[in-house]
Specification:
It is globular, with a radius of gyration of 22 Å. It is mainly α and 502 residues long. The strands form three sheets. A two-stranded antiparallel ribbon has the order 1-2. It has a two-stranded antiparallel sheet with strand order 3-4. The protein is built from 19 helices and six strands. α6 packs across α15.
Length: 502
């Protein structure tokens, strides 16, 4: 008999849950799911992270960084799509890990995903505030209410105090999005679709107009920081470090990978898809392909318009047009940046409560709170409000630099787990119905695992320590509560009839 820590949740039990009564409403089609994916992917990466990555980590080679990150996501996306079509319930990588690797590993992944979505949301809200403030009249917002009280000195690599009290615009947008999400997924998706339309129009404008202002001389020093970036807890393996942080094309890929995490959030909404077996794989793959092409084009235009070390780190895309004398275009893009980043924030804050919901149904966290679904709106309203409060605190009090670097490593970890889970499920359940099959197994999953590990090793060492601290806290909760209350532990003890409803 398997050790209780590694007890797997039977595939049949997962499928039965998908037919249960206490379910979320199935209202999302392939277009809405693709829109949700595009809404999460395009936004923070183009409008905020690209300038920082190009200026400090990779230079014009950021174009290649996006190719590497995009290819990593392609491998992971194909694996996600297979699982999402097999097990169309909320929870994403958490659910997949429970079915393949066991209870404790599933808890680790679920706990990790909650952190990534929540901290990622705080990062996005911070970026939203930066773009929004460029549209305000000078001195309209007091300095004390325009930024976090804690800053991050990238030269000294340490936190410093600022003259700010709270990043008020970031807190306000988080509160608004939280209320929208409590109201319901259908309304959220409709709002998101409108934001995505505005954002795509702006991205196409940047590519179409910006292409006429490209100076190819800006590409001559294409990889000023080199092509590497691999480190092992701060010790260089391939490439160099500056100030203790890895730099180079691969390091750039690890940093801008933040911009790609939207596609996996589509799989967390499988339970709300009208035809999950077909719609979710379409939504995942389509949104990823659309966004990868657009990303590469925008980065090529941006680094062609402005020399890499002169790109604005906060609002790089809009200020690039100001640099070439197109002030009107700067304002237009800033408006689109606000809309685009809003849609990213919506999708990321939409995802974390649904991971908690899946964990609550399994008894990992108290179902009375984390598993509560609103009787009218059919949304996980309590956890949505809880996550909203957490995001508001992070966005209002912490700097974007620290938030951005806390996000990526856990996401890459989750992607590697999903790729591994496909290999395990193909051996453990070869007879299971797979409406979408990941092609070229085992090659694609193995490439996905290797690419994820490569990018994880390209992140600054501090990311690893933050991840270990968070996972350590999660294990304390698991041993103190989750392993005693999980549905599978009760099932083993004969105290539950095989249903995980909480």
């Amino acid at each position: 008999m398997a050790h209780p820590f590694f007890t797997r949740k039977p595939l049949q039990m997962l499928l039965e849950e998908a037919r249960g009564e206490n379910r979320l409403r199935r209202v999302l089609g392939p277009v809405q799911l693709t829109s949700l994916g595009v809404g999460a992917i395009i936004g923070a990466g183009i409008f905020a992270a690209t300038g920082k990555a190009a200026a400090e980590t990779a230079g014009p080679a950021t174009m290649v960084s996006y190719v590497v990150a995009g290819m990593t996501c392609v491998f992971a996306a194909l694996c996600y799509a297979e699982f999402a079509s097999m097990v169309p319930v909320a929870g994403s990588a958490y659910t997949y890990a429970y079915a393949t690797m066991g209870e404790m590993f599933a808890w680790i992944i679920g706990w990790d995903l909650v952190l990534e979505y929540a901290v990622g949301s705080a990062t996005v809200a911070n970026a939203w505030s930066s773009y929004f403030q460029t549209l305000l009249p000078a001195d309209w917002l007091p300095s004390a209410l325009s930024k976090a009280p804690i800053g991050f000195d990238s030269g000294l690599h340490e936190f410093v105090m600022t003259d700010g009290i709270v990043n008020l615009p970031a807190v306000i947008i988080v509160a608004i999005v939280t209320l929208v999400l409590v109201k319901g997924i259908q309304e959220s998706a409709s709002f998101n679709a409108a934001m995505v339309g505005i954002k795509l129009a702006a991205v196409l404008f940047v590519i179409g107009v910006g292409a006429f202002f490209i100076d190819t001389k800006n590409w001559e020093n294409f990889a000023p920081f080199g092509w590497g970036g691999l480190t092992l807890f701060g010790t260089p393996i391939f490439g160099e470090t500056m100030g203790g942080k890895p730099v180079g094309m691969l390091a750039g890929a690890a940093i801008i990978f933040f911009a790609y995490i939207g596609f996996d959030s589509v799989s967390t909404h499988a339970e709300e898809a009208k035809r999950p077996n077909k719609d979710v794989p379409i939504g995942i793959v389509a949104s990823l392909l659309i966004c990868t092409v657009l990303y590469i084009a925008v980065v090529a235009v941006l680094t062609g318009m402005v020399r890499y070390d002169q790109i604005d780190k906060g609002a790089g895309v809009s200020t690039a047009f100001s640099t070439v004398g197109l002030e009107w275009a700067k304002n237009l893009i800033s408006v689109a940046g606000v809309a685009g980043i809003t849609s990213v924030l919506l999708v990321m804050m939409l995802s974390a409560p649904r991971v908690f919901l899946a964990m609550a149904r399994d008894g990992m966290v108290p179902a009375s709170f984390f598993g509560a679904v609103h009787p009218k709106f059919r949304t996980p309203w309590k956890t949505t409000i809880l996550i909203g409060c957490f995001v508001a605190v992070g966005a209002g009090l912490l700097p974007i630099d620290a938030l951005l670097e806390m996000t990526n490593i856990g996401t890459l970890f989750a992607f590697a787990v999903v790729c591994t889970a496909v290999l395990i499920m193909r051996r453990a359940h070869p007879e299971a119905e797979r409406p979408f099959r990941c092609p070229w197994v085992p090659l694609v999953p193995i490439l996905g695992i290797l690419c994820c590990l490569m990018l994880m090793l390209s992140l600054p060492a501090a990311n690893w320590w933050r991840l270990f601290v968070w996972l350590g806290l999660g294990l304390v909760i698991y041993f103190a509560y989750s392993r005693h209350h999980s549905v599978m532990s009760k099932h083993r003890a004969g105290r539950a009839p095989g249903s995980s409803r909480g």
